[in-house]
What does this fold into?
Amino acid sequence: MFLRLAVSSLWRRKGSVLLTFFAITVSVFVLLGVEQIRVQAKNSFSNTVSGTDLIVGARTGDINLLLYSVFRLGNATANISWQSYQHIATDPNVAWTIPISLGDSHKGYRVMGTNTAYFSHFRFGQEQSLELAEGAPFSKVFDVVLGSEVARALGYQLGDQLTLAHGIGSTSFSNHDDNPFRVTGILKPTGTPVDNTLHVSLKGIEAIHVGWQNGVKLASRSNTPAADIQQEFTPQNITAFMVGLNSKLATFRLQRQINTYQGEPLQAILPGATLAEFWQVIAAMENTLRLISILVLVASLLGLAAMLLASIRERQQEIAVMRTIGASPWFLLALIEVEAILITLGASVLAIVLLFLSTTLSAAILAERFNLFIDSMIITTQFLIYLMVVAGGTLVVALIPGVSAYRSALHQDLTR
Amino acid sequence: MVVSIQDLSFHYSKNRTAVLDIPQWSLQSREQVFLHGPSGTGKSTLLNLLAGILLPSAGTIDILGKRINTLNGRQRDSWRARHIGVVFQQFNLIYYLSALDNIRLAALFGGTVNATSRASELLQALGIDTALHQQPAGQLSIGQQQRVAIARALINQPELLIVDEPTSALDARNRDVFMALLLDQVRLHQTALVFVSHDLALANTFSRVEAIADINRAGGIH
It folds into this structure.
């Protein structure tokens, strides 16, 4: 009966109640959305690479190196010579290396030149290795292995042919049209930037750039695919490489050796440590977003209090009737509190549903444009704490109209 | 004895003159008293005191042997819900609740069990069709609303029923129907009744008729 009274009372004032309801829905959506993006982004980034002890590139910022080598975000400032790579790769402490050569693309998807060590040593998530859904790793110069999302989005199947474009823009005027690649393998989904990448051999990268200078095809270039296949290409440069060590104890020693390498300016980073550094950099933005979302919530809860407070004035007769039939002032205070909680509870449920739908619907766009792979929704402790804060905040601000109702009830008599 | 008043005095603030000054007044079980008098003579203040909404400035009011001013606020609210029924002249019901829910709400405060079936019986007895039981009170006619108010006042089987100008908004036909139904129910439930009105035409149906001026020496609000 008590609940029915509260619901009926709210329904009677449905115009103002609905406006308040939607204001709270938006604020809870923003609050939980910011938290969701934070958690999802962390999970996505943390799961992208595992088991790699060092990432080596030309000297640049730690975070920049991590972003372009692992997350395919941004660009390298310089390349590493093949000799330097060979020198480090043959260090006795090094168990394996995965060379990475970036700079080309296909319809907006990045192309990565590497070797077969990539398929055997690269790990993501909880030390999971790459698996092929179809076909086999590249074995010839013009073989390409597609990430699952590339194959899905562009509709490629084994045996299909495609050409690469110079540069990483979605539209390029410098294409490697004369060297088409054949799809030999499609990887299983990983939920990482691997899904959005086309993988070719380093030889393939070299082959398509013969006769090119500074990103421009020279008029004298006359290579054909058949001619390229016949050649033995040795890469001149690569963009970066991942390193796995025989012993973790050697990590810092090798990192120091690479950072002080005399041959050329190189830099080695620890992926985990750099990721932590990255979170510190974006923590300020995170906190600002959180603060804004909390302020939006406070504003909408105060709006709720104002709406309920205004309703007390028009409910004097109702209060008088309830007092007459035995309602205590505490009952009226509790009624106002329950009305406030009902609005907030309903708004929170709607906000969660909207959040679920928006994360589900935006997952593909985030993956395609930002290499950010998110699950449909993650319920964290912080998420639940926020919901409790919303409920607690509601109870506190509803005390303003609640106490007004209480005081009104105390002074109410039968003649009003 | 249902009501016993001794040396009652009431004023709204210490600096103002007393609104009520009643040396002695009482109401016996099953008695129905008609109180009349012009506006501002303290009728409604007396009803508020009998209902425990206001407390005496001096003197005592005993309802069913219980001294009302010894109870705290919560106890008075509960006491009122269980032992006193009230019907106003208007704004009697919560108009967004159904007729049945208005009665069930009073039953909730009075702790009455099986409220739904009892409320339906009362509404039927008062001539409210079943089809109207779930109708929001605001959609009922004034006459129907007043009958629902009687049902609500009687749901907790109170020993005392306070009725304040209930027929002022009704036409003559509806007034007569209302009075007949009210008195039938009061007799049926053996409830003591304090009926306040300035319409002396209604007085002849009561066993006891008193002018407020005869019992209140203060003469009301000045």
Q: What stands out?
A: Chain A has a mean pLDDT of 86. The two ends of chain A are 25 Å apart (CA to CA). The first strand of chain A starts at residue 54 and ends at 58. Chain A is about 55% helix and 15% strand.
